[in-house]
């Protein structure tokens, strides 16, 4: 039986870290199918990793095993876990990396404490190779989830900014991610904006009227707003970079108001 194991890390690809994890996976489970999701998460950026997983994992087949290693607390008391949700498995540190994903579906989790799911020698600085990869490989080989270790009832949460609505009905949020196109992705979900065509989006001193459906609704080089494929409000420039155009980055305050009729 072929099982798919995906890899998401902040390791990059120039160093041997990802290759070592793949070697461990193949040594334990030679038939495993390894899929690289990304190794370009910002170094130690747990929030970026959590946003990535929430946007990618739901679209994979049942029983996929996802290994995610953005782990600034490696070697400390933070727990290594296997999480089961959306009929898939997430093998990762319990540091908030799965916090956005578990909002979407019921979950159960276990601490990786069974030594049979780890390498014999464990480096205090490379749990990706010595704990997470072997645990995923054993699951891919058919080892039962309930043998991983003891169940846990709660997960570490993520310091994730939640949008608010003031007395006037204005929605206050912020930019939480800048993608490779320079689009400014906010934490304001489409469900919060009842009349997109009548909305005005404010970023600093800039105001953009109306929320479009796609990038091409305005001429090349023009700034616009729309709800991206993840359902969250984005500020973009048609065939350009909103991050450059507005000199903006993650953390910038964004307000959505209704335009007076």
Can you tell me about this structure?
With 261 residues, this protein is an alpha+beta fold. The protein is 16% helix and 30% strand. The chain is built from four helices and 15 strands. Strands 8, 9, 10, 11, 12, 13, 14 and 15 form an eight-stranded antiparallel β-sheet that branches. A hairpin with a 4-residue loop joins strand 13 (223-227) and strand 14. The longest helix has 14 residues, at 127-140. The relative contact order is 0.13.
CATH architecture level-2 label of the largest domain: 3-Layer(aba) Sandwich
C-alpha geometry = elongated
Helix content: 10-25%
Number of discrete helical segments: 4
Radius of gyration: 21 Å
Total count of domains? 2
Number of DSSP-assigned strands: 15
Task: Give the helices and strands as they follow along the chain.
Answer: EHEHEEEEHEEEEEEEEHE
Strand content: 25-35%
Distance between the termini: 61 Å
- The CATH class assignment of the largest domain is Alpha Beta
Helices and strands: which structural class? alpha+beta
As residue ranges, the low-confidence spans are none
Largest beta-sheet characterization: 8 strands, antiparallel
List the helices and strands and how they pair.
Blueprint: E1 4-9, H1 17-28, E2 33-38, H2 46-56, E3 65-69, E4 80-85, E5 88-93, E6 107-111, H3 127-140, E7 151-152, E8 164-165, E9 171-178, E10 184-189, E11 199-203, E12 206-209, E13 223-227, E14 232-237, H4 242-245, E15 253-258
Parallel strand pairs: 1-2, 1-3, 3-5
Antiparallel strand pairs: 4-5, 4-6, 6-7, 8-9, 9-10, 9-15, 10-14, 11-12, 11-15, 13-14
Helix pairs in contact: 1-3
